[in-house]
Design brief:
The structure is a homotetramer of 342-residue chains. Chain A has 342 residues and is α/β, with parallel strands linked by helices. The first copy, chain A, contains 14 helices and 13 strands. Chains in contact: A-B, A-C, A-D, B-C, B-D, C-D.
Chain lengths: 342, 342, 342, 342
């Protein structure tokens, strides 16, 4: 039997979430997110982030959330800066550009943006013959599994405010970042330091759904029009409301992320035991071991994972992802295979 | 207690659909619609429409499906023709225009497009100073509850093919149209007569999801790129696959629509018994009675429905919608209220 | 020899304009409109409209000016209202929609928009499922040759300000409107009553070029970025600067329009002498006589003009346009032909 | 007196071009490029490139031409590859992205694209989660003054055809490239090896105007609709027609470029005499000397030029551009200043 570490959205939803959806199934609810479940979930999130003034919108998926966040904030000539590895830059089929905006990408060693990199972009964009950088996109955890420290985010936030740049944090894997032992940020910190961010449900135990949090007052106006126009306003909007109620009315959101991280820790230990190097220091639920090609090939017979890159002729860097649903048996089988192969 | 006839998406999903989702919850499935449930559901639909060559894509919602269908088919200077009442013309916040295309709308008495109306549009669009009409958008059932006969659709299809126009049928309420006693079309007929169409799940007992069927070969290429770009490719794509498996592996799709129509029949009878006129001949699950203002106001105390228009100073045309989940008790309560008030 | 009344851009430019371009030909000028001719022309226009705070941008053509004016002012979900006959609605190949915005068109008897028509549009656009009307587009003279009175424009302006709508006046034929005997508006009035407007050069004796005047402060920011992005920033920007210097440093702009109107007056008299009715009361440089088909056909042997519409089986409504370059001999030949034919 | 080497569009047009425009000034011509001058100019170009099947469109400016070429050829999910220094990537304010398409940029040492660089981009774009590369944009001369050899263009063309990529050559400075002593390409070669390209007028002695040549049959359909939609169809279209008639009915196009190159040769010799290194081997009309900061500053007192980059703390790389109108006295003055300063 093949076990998958391919991603953190291979299974459905946490049983408690499904249970809540079942229980509400025959309620008659008003559509488009105007229901009481969504209102309650918004309230829970506002409380969690300690910002009663925040606007919270539930969006079915991450690409939609990103394109709404960017296109809702920018005028036609404005651009968003991100790391070269940023999801919007490489893995959304040009969704941002399809709304008319350039993505300005910066090479980074580890997927983390710094003020120095931003400064370089600003220095190159000086007049009306070039796009005008107006937003900074970061992800936490990043696409290579790294996470922002509080100090790093504060520094970035200061730079952005000084230069009139909106700071947007893509939190598709925010649960895993926050639950990481290396993390010193809270949701309230993130709400303090960014202008908008989203809390990912899809990759952390919901069937689907992301909670987009708008903090900067300029970004809030008419946002529901934008959601509708991009086809991101679900008819049965309470479905996301119910899921985020479950995630935030108790500690389910962090509990599931902690499980994912524990499973990742076990994998990291197994890799480290065999002396296998990791491509990036990634303390959350993604791991990037660099394996001899034949080891990678042998593992692929029993496990699903993706290939990240080929660092040299004889090695393969693979990506292992754990989730709320990852089974200890699956991890143990992988560790056993490693002991056999590496 | 208030009972809602506000729309056909006030409740969740048919219990069998939820059950199937529960059962598959801990399976590990590949993402983005590449799973076996989606493959099976596609196969069931291809069989039902008798077109093994059709491409079937599952899209979370109707606005996304419409904007993908239109923007995927048109070059930048091309436009889509629809009835003035067409959903894409009035109720999608300019989603089509946001992809760059003009919607050319025709006034119609009943939401049904005819070759004569199309001919008038073509006659006005003669050179490169005007957009080039290239697609015709119809909905069945229409936004005012009417449905296409086979003869009407054949005539329209002939006209479109003669003039090189793609014919796109929005089937958000296709279940109810097909289950209507006034209907003589089959899904196979629709696949024969259109270039692309969609089978609506959201308004017929699914949690969400529409099955977009691409028939014309020119429309198929690279469609998954377009889906991804617009944020309409669900990570957990099997969720729509499972729902359409349930809808089409037995007669659930039509059974639910038949229930909705039966409930509508009961409402129609109750209205007719009190001599209340209907604004349109709508033989499916939407009814548009024209009521004295005070009757409408009195009904609104116990029932939810939307106001369609004000035909004159003292009357209100309201919209009643039934669904797979509409309860006979709700209908009976409404009939009783009518007997009391009208 | 065939004489053309086909439009007001059949000839090049007034000789004084060409002369000025010749004289400046070997100057070394900075590019993109940052030259002294453009600065001077801007100053002349600001003085003429009595608004030292206005931003003036020179754009090569009308479609570009319109799409910049609209897309520069609107957020993605916002729409522009115009008359059904509005140039942006019918004769710009969907240029506005290509920037993502819906054009909401109103039927009018005469191409003139009124507050009543706007009120009807506003009443229909009530929530986030529909686009949000945010701009009103009018043209003076209109596409059917009619013009706005001061009272009509004041009323419209009041309505727009009350409802937070930007008022944009397309002045492709503003010269002819202002020079009309039926006109009681000045450029300063227009600057007072609108939020942005443009003064057309192409149709009034320039080789090309329109002067877009931005009055509302919200519309001014970063406008040069938008111009560049749409490809509307000429490398040799002084070419439009020089032309508008000539148009406005003496009365050339109105003188040329007056000539066009006088030629139109002669045509109107000749038509009236033969009892030929006009489709619209058009007191500027466009005339829309309704002719028996055979008269129209016979005239077409010696004169160029366009066909506007077929009011009935045996009549044709044609469009005659005069310009700064229309020759009295051409008009006289047309009058003679009318005497012969009608 | 200050002399400008800032660009090749500081002066108006060659006197013969102005003369031809004067002579045609009072002709009555049909609009939008349907006139006989444009037809004749198209014919001259077709003959020059030896492709009777080519479609030739005259567009007022370069940014418009580029955005039309790219957006006219690509479907929504497709992208264009270019050098990091490519004009569309850095100096058109995101004009391509504003039409919805991603620009995929490659670092290059010299602005020249090679099959190896393209191969790397293709290798990274493997599925529907990423944009689909479909066009390659090159410029000749490039933005850093380098030019393509016939061998290099043949190799690129072969690669593009093999991989189904359209090859588009931006010829804003094609005249100077073709007139360079280092060049071995002809216009006919370029027509043979690319799918579309443009011949720049603005930077080679026309008032404005670029001739876009469409070769691949798939790119031709309905192109006039696209031109109109983007506001690039001039009312007085014969103005570009006349200019290209002059450019191509005798050798004016190459003669002017040769003059520009000769002036550049004189500058290069003066720089070389003082031992000043050049940043790139640029054999056409752009030169990039690397000067000590104080020399650059001193020269800036008498000459206009732009700063390209700061290679180190004490040097400045400037850009000198010559044109059809550059005066030998200006060049001599610059050489004298160099002798004095360097």
């Amino acid at each position: 039997m093949i076990y998958s570490f391919n991603n953190d959205y291979s299974e459905g939803a946490h049983p408690r979430i499904l249970q809540a959806m079942m229980e509400a199934n025959l309620e008659q609810n008003p559509g488009y997110g105007t229901d009481s479940h969504s209102a309650h979930a918004r309230e829970l999130i506002r409380r969690e982030i300690r910002r009663e003034d925040a606007d919270v919108h539930f969006i079915p998926g991450g690409t939609q959330t990103n394109l709404l966040a960017v296109s809702g904030a920018l005028r036609p000539h404005q651009a968003v800066i991100c790391a070269e590895t940023g999801h919007i830059n490489v893995h959304e089929t040009g969704a941002i550009e399809a709304t008319g905006h350039k993505v300005l990408s910066c090479p980074t060693p580890d997927g983390i943006l710094t003020p120095e990199q931003l400064q370089r972009v600003l220095a190159h964009h000086t007049d009306e013959h070039m796009v005008q950088p107006k937003m900074v996109y970061i992800s936490d955890a990043t696409e290579v599994g790294t996470i922002y420290t509080k100090a790093a985010l504060e520094e970035l936030s200061r730079f952005c405010r000084l230069h009139g740049l909106y700071l947007f944090l893509d939190g598709a894997r925010l649960g895993s970042a926050l639950a990481s032992r290396a993390n010193d940020l809270t949701l309230a910190d993130i709400a303090e330091l960014t202008d908008l961010f989203y809390i990912g449900g899809t990759k952390n135990g919901a069937l689907f759904g992301e909670a987009l949090v708008l903090l900067h007052p300029d970004l809030k106006q008419d946002f529901r029009f934008l959601i509708k126009q991009r086809g991101a306003m679900m008819a049965k909007g309470w479905l996301t409301g119910i899921q985020f109620e479950e995630l935030f009315q108790n500690s389910l959101f962090l509990d599931m992320a902690s499980h994912a991280n524990e499973m990742a820790d076990l994998l990291r230990r197994a890799l480290s035991d065999r002396g296998i190097p990791l491509r990036w220091e990634s303390p959350a639920n993604q791991i990037f071991p660099v394996l001899p090609d034949e080891t990678a090939a042998a593992l692929a017979e029993d496990f699903l994972f993706s290939v990240q890159e080929k660092p040299d002729q004889s090695h393969t860097c693979i990506r292992l992802v754990t989730s709320w649903a990852t089974k200890p048996e699956g991890v143990e089988a992988f560790a056993a295979a490693l002991r056999r192969l590496a």
